[in-house]
Amino acid sequence: MAKRRNRPIVSASTLKNTFDRRSMVVGSIQGGIGVLLAARMGYLAIAENEKYRLESESNRVNLTLIPPRRGWILDRNGAPLASNRADFRVDLIPERLKDADETIDQIGELLELNPNRIADLKREVSQVSGFQPVEVASGLNYEQFAALSVRLPDMQGVVPQRGFSRFYPTGPSVGHLVGYVGPANAEEYDEEERNPLLITPGYKIGKDGLEKQFEQALRGEPGARRVEVTASGRIIRDLETREDVQGNPVKLTIDGPLQDYAARRIGLESGSVVVMDCQTGDLLCMASMPSFDPNSFSDGIGSVEYSMLREDERVPLRNKVLKGLYPPGSTVKPMHCMAFLKEGVRPDETIICGGGRRIGNRFFNCWSNHGVVDMAKAIYQSCDSYFYHFAQQVGFDKVAAMAKGLGLGQEFELPVTSQFYGTVPNAEWKLNKFEREWQPFDTVNASIGQGYYLASPLQLAVMSARLATGKVLNPRLVLDGAVTDPLSYNFKDDEINYIRQAMSDVVNGPGTAGRGRLPFPDIKMAGKTGTAQVVSLNISDGRTGPWKFRDHGLFTFFAPLENPRYAGAVVIEHGGGSGAAYPIARDVMTFMFDPAKGLEALNALEKQWGGTAQERLDAKYESYAAERGASVTRPPRRDEDIFDRVEAEARVAAQQSEEIADEFVAPRPLATPSGAPTPAPDSASPATPGPAQ
Amino acid sequence: MNRANSIIPEPIARQPWPMLIPLFLLVLFGAAVLYSAAGGSMQPFASSHLFRFGVFLLMAAVITSFPRELVRFLTYPAYVIVLLLLVAVEIMGTLGGGSQRWIDLGFMVLQPSELMKPVIVVVLAHFYSSLPVGLITSWRALLVPAGLILAPMALVLMQPDLGTSLAIAFGGAVVMLLAGLPMRWFIGGGIAAVVAAPLAFFFALEEYQQRRVMTLFDPESDPLGAGYHIAQSKIAIGSGGIVGKGFNNGSQSHLQYLPEPHTDFVFATMAEEWGLIGGIFVIGIFAIILRWGTRVALASRDRFSSLLAAGMVATIFFYIAVNLMMVMGMAPVVGIPLPFMSHGGSSMMTNMICIGALMMVNRWNRNAPRGGLTS
C-alpha cells in the first residue's frame, strides 16, 4: 500500500485506490446504519408493539367519568329529604386556565354572577390544588348554558355540562340533620387514594350530617364515557357509554313533614325539637333552628353567607339537637320522682314548702310557697323544696343512677358525626373534675336539674320516652327492618301511671303548662316544664335584658296520656322560660295527630314572623349582603374547619351554666321554673294561661 | 439492458431505470401517505408533492444533460452566488427583525441553505480534482476546503439552523475523506469534535436546541414539552406493528397527536398505517437508490465525477439517516425532512439536484471510455 515510508508516495492510482477503499467503508457504514434503523424499527413495531398500541389507544380514547347520581335520603314514608335535580352546571379546572381572573370575569359577565360570588371564585381558584374542579354555578338555564358553550374554544379549563345536583326540598329544616354535599378537598382526595371520581367536575361528597355518614352507601357507581379526542381535546365521536349506577337510598325514621313543621314552628327562636316513637325508638323529628340552607352550601360556602351565619348569636351552624347542652331544669323532676319511688318514698308522703326548705343547716329557696306538697303536686307545681328534701334523703347518687339509666349522660348509637353526652353530676364526678367534695348545695342544685347537670335535647326526649313507657327505648335514625321488643325497666304499673298522671296534670290539670293542652277532646298530652338559669339572679331576671342571659325554656312530653305513642323534648335557648317551649310542643303534637289543624296555627304565626324559615333566611341573606357585602370575614378554606370551630364553641357554650354551679342556684321567686307566659311568640295559642303559680 | 435489441427507444432505454422505478414508487408511496396525513385528501399535500416531483424531475433531466466542462466552469461562481444569498437572507432577517431562512422569489420560496448542500459537494469535488496529486497530504488540501465548508456553515448556524449546517458539514467531510486526505487528520478531527461537542452544547446551541438534545437521553423528563414529539412519534411507529393500522386509519396522525405528520414525521405517519412492512419497503428503496449512487461513483473514471457522485450520495444519506433516527428516538429533533416522502419544496429540490447530479455523472460514465484515466 501507499504507506511505505514516513511520507507516502501519492499518485493518481493510489488516490483512486484510497477512494475505492474509503467508498466501500462509507458504503458499509451507510448500509450498517440502514440495518440498524430497520432493526430499531422492528424492535419498536414488534417487541414494543403492545406498549405503544396501548399508549396510542390512551391517546386516542378519552375516558370521562360520569358522576353517579347520589342515592336519595328518604323519610319514613319514602318522601325525599334529599334528592337530585337535573340541571346545567359549570365548573373550572384551575390548572387548565390560562388567565384565571380574566376567564372568571368573562364567565361572571355571561352568567350575571354577583360581585361577591366572583370574588369568592377568584380566591378559591387561587387556593385549591390545580386538579380540583371549582364549581362556578349550577342550576343554569338553557340559554346561559348555551351562551357559555359556544364560547368554549376561547375558554380553556371551563367545563359546562349537564348533570345532577343535590336538592333538599325542605332546605333549612333538614340542614343540621341531613348535612350537605360539596366538592372533595385535597385531603379527602388523598385519603381515598386519589380516586379520580373525586376530582370529576360536578362530583360532590357528603360534608356533614347524614350525607357524610352514609357517603359510601349513597355514592353509587360512576358511569364512563369513552370518546375519541384530538390532541387538543376536541371530541371527534362517542365510542361507548356506560351508565352510572345510582347510589342506594337511605331511609330514615324521620317523618319529613313533621320535621319541617317543627323546624318552622321554632320560628324566630333558637332551639330544637325532638320527637320519638314510643314503640320503636324511631326518631321522628330532630329539628334544630336556626339553620343553614344546605342547597346553597353545595356550591361552596360563600363568604357573605358564612359571615352572616357566624355572626348570628343563635349559631345557625350548630346542630343543637346533638350539640346543644343545657341544664335540664325541672324537666328531670318526674324522673327524679321515679328514683324516689324506687328508693321507697311513698307518693303520698308530704313535706311543707315554706317558700323553701332547710337542708342541713342552710335554708334553700323554692321559687314559690307551695304549702303541703306530695309527689303529684311536686311535679305539676314544680315545687323545688320537695326535691331538695327527698334528694337529700335518698342521696343524690341514687338519683344520678336513675338519670343515667334513663339516658342522660349517655351516648347513643346513631349515625351522626358527633354528639355531646352532657353531664349527670355526682360526688365522684365532681371530685374527678374539680377535686372538690360534693356539698349539700350540689344535691340541691342537681335535684332540680341545675348546677352541673347538662343534657342534650335528644337525651331529654329519650328520657321522656323511657319514663313514659318504662321501656329501654333506644333512639333509631335509620329505618332498617323491625326492632326487637325493648327491655323493660321493671317499673311498677302503678308507679308509671302515677307519674304519667302527675305529668298530665302539668298540662291538663292545675299545673305549670296550662296553655299546652292539645285541641282534641280525646287526646291528652302529658309533659313537664323546665326553666334553666344560665346566669345568677343578680345579673339578669331571666326574661328580659340581653338575650344571652335569658333562661332556657324546656319541655319534655309524651302523648297520648293513656298509651304513649310519641314522646319528645323541646328546648328553646334563652327563651326566657318554659313558656317559650311548651306551646311549640303542643303545636307539634297537634300537627302529629291532625296536620291541618297544626298548619293552621303555624300559618298564622308565620304571617307575623315574615314568612317561612326558608323565606326569612333568604331575606336575611339579601339584606345582609346588601349591607355588609364586601367587608365580610372569609370562611376557612376547609369545611371541616368551619364545623370543628362550631363544635368547639358549642362545648364552650355548654359550660356557661357551670360558672354558676359552684354555688346554690337560687330559683327565681315567683318567676316560674316552669314558665309563666312570657312575651314569647305564641300569641296564637288557643289555650288559657296556666293557673297562678 | 440490451440496448440494441430493445423495442424501447434508446433515449428512454438508456435512463437508469433500476434507480428511477424504485424512486417513482417511493414518491407515489409518499403521496399516498400525504393523502392520509391530509385526512384522506389529495389537497393540500399529496397533489403538490407529485407536482413538485414532476417539476424537479424535469430539472434533474436538465442537470443530467450538463457537460462536465460546463459544470466545472460554473462551480465556483455558483458557490459564491449561494454564499451571497446566505448573507442576503441574514441581512434581510436582521432588518426584518427576526430569523429568516428564505428568499421569496415570487414563484417559489428559496432557501439558499438548501442549495448549499449540493453546491458544497461540487465545489470540493472540483477543488480536489484540480489539486495536484502530490499536494493531497499538504495543509493546503485541508485548510482551503475547511474554509469553504465553515463559511456557509457559520452563516446557516446564525439562522439558526443546526440540521442544515450539519448536513453541509457532513457532505463536505465525506468528500474530503474520499479525496484521500490522511486518515490521521480525520482521527484528530474526530477527537477534537468529541472535545468540542460539550462546549458547543453549552455555548453554541439555543436553549430550545439544548432541551431537544437532553430529551434524547431522557425522553420522560418532559413528556409534554420537548420530549412530546419523539414520544408521539415512537408511539405512532410502535403501535403500527407489523402490518400497520391500515391506510387512512392512523389515529396518531389523524387526531393530531403526531407533530408535523406531513413533513419531519412523515415516516411515523407512514409506519403507523403500513407497519414494519411499509418501513422495510421505504428503507429498502433508499438502500437501492444509495447503492446505485455509490456504484455510479465507483464506476467513474475521473476524480471530479467520482467525488461529486459520492458526495451527492452522502448528502441524500444524511437526510435519510438523521430523519429516521430522529423519528425513532435515536437523534434529537433537528428538523430534517425525509427525502422524497416529506412534503416540502426545498428538500425535494435539494434531493432532486443530487439525483440529477448522479444521473449526470452516470451519463458521463457511459460516454467516457471505460478504463479512461484522469480527466
Detailed description of the structure:
The complex is a heterodimer of chains A (693) and B (375). In chain A, strands 2, 3, 4, 5 and 10 form a five-stranded mixed β-sheet that branches. Chain A is of the alpha+beta class. Residues 1-5 and 671-693 of chain A have low confidence and may be disordered. Chain A is built from 25 helices and 19 strands. With 375 residues, chain B is an all-alpha fold. Chain B contains 14 helices and two strands; from the N terminus they run ααααββαααααααααα. Chain B has helices at residues 10-13, 17-37, 46-64, 68-96, 112-130, 140-157, 162-178, 183-203, 207-217, 226-240, 251-254, 266-299, 303-327, 345-367; strands at residues 103-104, 109-110. A two-stranded antiparallel ribbon of chain B has the order 1-2. In chain B, β1 and β2 form a beta hairpin. The longest helix of chain B is centred in the last third of the chain and has 34 residues, at 266-299. Chain B starts with 9 loop residues before the first helix and ends in an 8-residue tail after the last helix. Residues 371-375 of chain B have low confidence and may be disordered. At the A-B interface, α1 and α2 of A face α7, α10, α12 and α13 of B.
Shape of chain A: elongated
Number of helices of chain B: 14
Report the β-strand fraction of chain A as a percent range.
15-25%
Task: Quickly count the helices of chain A.
Answer: 25
Oligomer type: heterodimer
Report the major sheet of chain A. Answer: 5 strands, mixed
- Report the uncertain regions of chain A: 1-5, 671-693
Biggest β-sheet: strands ordered side by side in the sheet of chain B: 1-2
The helical percent of chain A reads 25-40%
Distance between the termini of chain B: 28 Å
Count of strand segments of chain B: 2
Structural class of chain A: alpha+beta
Specify the helix fraction band of chain B: 55-70%
Number-wise, the strands of chain A total 19
Largest interface: A-B, 43 and 51 residues
Q: Give the helix/strand class of chain B.
A: mainly alpha
| Major β-sheet annotation of chain B | 2 strands, antiparallel
What amount of the residues of chain B lies in strands? under 5%
Radius of gyration of chain B: 21 Å
